[in-house]
Structure formats: C-alpha cells, structure tokens
Design a protein that fits this description.
Helix content: 40-55%
Number of domains: 2
Order of helices and strands: HHHEEHHHEEEEHHHEEHEH
Number of helices: 11
CATH class of the largest domain: Alpha Beta
CATH superfamily of the largest domain: Elongation factor Ts, dimerisation domain
Radius of gyration: 23 Å
Strand content: 15-25%
Number of strands: 9
Shape: flat
Largest sheet: 4 strands, antiparallel
Structural class: alpha+beta
Strand order of the largest sheet: 3-2-1-5
CATH topology of the largest domain: Tetrahydropterin Synthase, Chain A
Length: 307
C-alpha cells in the first residue's frame, strides 16, 4: 500500500523516530500505526507509544463535591481565550453541579435542566454560543463516591476555584478518620495528575496492553541470544517494571519516591486510624483524545484577502 506523508508525520510524533525509520516501519506493517510503533520499539528505535500525549481541544475541566462524592466535567470551546471568560466559567460550574445531582452520567446531565432554567444543559450551552461567541460542547462527566471514607478533588493549574485544564478524583474507603483519609486522597490525586496511571491495580490493567508489552519485550530479549529460561526471567522482571510504571498502587509515590503508593497508603493508615484502600480514581485532561484540525494560517489569510 502507499504510505502517506501524514502517516509518517504522525508516527514521528508518536515515537520520536527518524523519518526513514518511520517510513520503513509503516511499509513493514501495511500502514498499521500501532503495529508500526511496536516494530520500531522491537528494533530499539522507539522507546514508547506516546499516542496518549496528543491533545487538541480547549475549554475547562470543572469539579463539584458533595458528601463523600465528587464529579468532574469537561466543557470544550474553540479557543483558550474562553477559559478566562467569567460567563463560561460560571457555565462549567453549573454543569458540574448538574452532573453531581445526576450521578456523573454524561447523557443524563446533558438532558437535565440547567440551574434556574427551563432549558436543558445542552440547550443552555447552545444559547451561550451566541452570547460568548464560540462554539462549545459538553463532552463528558464522571463521578466517584464512597459509603465510608472520602473522595478528594485536585485541579491542576486552576484558573478559578474548581476549574482548570486537568482534574483528578481519588476515592478512599475506610471506617477511620474521613478528614485524614481525604488529606491522603488529595496527595494521591496530585500523584495521579503527575503520572497518569493506566489502571488502579494490576488486576484492572487492560490485558491487551500487557500482552502487547510482553510481545515487545520478548522480541527485544531474543535479540540478546540468551537461553529461553534466562529470557523468561528477563521478561518477568521487565513486566514487573512495566507495572511499576503504569499501575497506580505500584508506582513510586511522587510525594515520597522511597515508597510505592500502596506502601504510602499503609503508612497513612496510622493517621486514618483504620485499614484503608483506594477504591478508584478519575483523571480528566482537557482535550485528551481529540485531534484539532490543522490549518494553514497563511492560506486562510490569503483566502480572506481574495474573499
């Protein structure tokens, strides 16, 4: 098949590999982007898949907190300027309030009535487009709650109270002191903001991701020419290292890197006064997974002049 310049460019952005290497990888894998990333990794040319780093939408992440529960919402806009607009900020705050009242369900929140209005959240946002002057949309919501314990919220680089471009919720279940549990949960939320773990624990990690990593590591280990029994031990060790990189409870705690998150939780139980467990986390980064349409500014200006 024909490999396009756009595909080569995308693979370069994902892996940092050279243009010719990217072209060769795509040719070898019939243009399959994920397979091309793995091909480069097996050759030792690329270290990791950076696909998750592609973000391209503006707006705000908003949060609201109830009794032992909290929500995050994402409301998108066309430009970053709108995030500093007080009317838009108030809109996001109110969407978060509605989401809290509807269990963090995105569809129910979108259809629910906006505060002090007969209109739905969706229709209110449509009306705000005319007032604020930008296209906007309510993208998603999520909730965490516990029967006993605490849920902490952390907004990174907040532009206003409860509003920013990255938000995290962390829930800790415990019969102990809720205030102490909440304080530790907030530390874990800051950790999650920094490290972006793929899962809470090993059991909840996507089996496909583990199988893919094992396949890449196996190919790399075979290049060493060592016996199969040695290779097997090498792979087991590297898989453990993989868990330490992507599984929350196995990661080195950013606030005290001498401890893993699970070890830090164990230590925190002294202040909490009872056994505790992290029951869940949610991390919303603004625009993650959305690709912004690239534009040629010079061409736009030229077209406008001709216009």
């Amino acid at each position: 098949m024909s490999i396009t310049a756009a595909q080569v460019k995308e693979l370069r952005e994902l892996t940092g590999a050279g243009m010719m290497d990217c072209k060769a990888a795509l040719a070898e894998t019939n243009g399959d982007m994920d397979a091309a990333v793995d091909w480069l990794r097996k050759k030792g040319i690329a270290k990791a898949d950076k696909k998750a780093g592609r973000t391209a939408a503006e707006g705000l992440i908003g949060s609201d907190t109830g009794v032992r529960e909290a929500v995050l919402v994402e409301v998108n806009s066309e430009t970053d300027f709108v995030a500093r607009n007080e009317a838009f900020q108030e809109l996001v705050r109110n969407v978060a309030k509605v989401a809290l009242a509807h269990g963090g369900d995105t569809e129910k929140t979108a259809a629910a009535k906006y505060p002090h209005s007969d209109k739905s959240v969706t229709d209110t946002i449509k009306d705000a487009v005319g007032t604020i002057g930008e296209n906007m949309s309510f993208r998603r919501a999520a909730r965490l709650g516990v029967e006993q314990g605490a849920v902490a919220t952390y907004i990174h680089n907040a532009v206003a109270d409860g509003l920013g471009k990255l938000g995290v919720l962390v829930a800790i279940e415990t019969t102990g002191d809720a205030k102490a549990a909440g304080a530790f949960a907030r530390q874990v939320a800051m950790h999650v903001a920094a490290t972006n773990p793929a899962s809470l624990d090993v059991d909840s990690l996507d089996p496909t991701a583990v199988a893919r990593e094992r396949a890449v590591l196996t190919e790399q280990a075979r290049e060493s020419g060592k016996p199969d029994n040695v290779i097997e031990k090498m792979i087991d060790g590297r898989i453990r290292k993989f868990y330490e990189e992507v599984v929350l409870v196995k990661q080195a705690f950013v606030i005290n890197p001498d401890l893993t998150v699970e070890a830090a939780l164990k230590a925190a139980e002294k202040d909490i006064g009872a056994p505790a467990r992290i029951s869940g986390f949610v991390r919303f980064a603004l625009g993650e997974g959305i690709e912004k349409e690239e534009s040629d500014f010079a061409a736009e200006v030229a077209a406008a002049v001709k216009g």
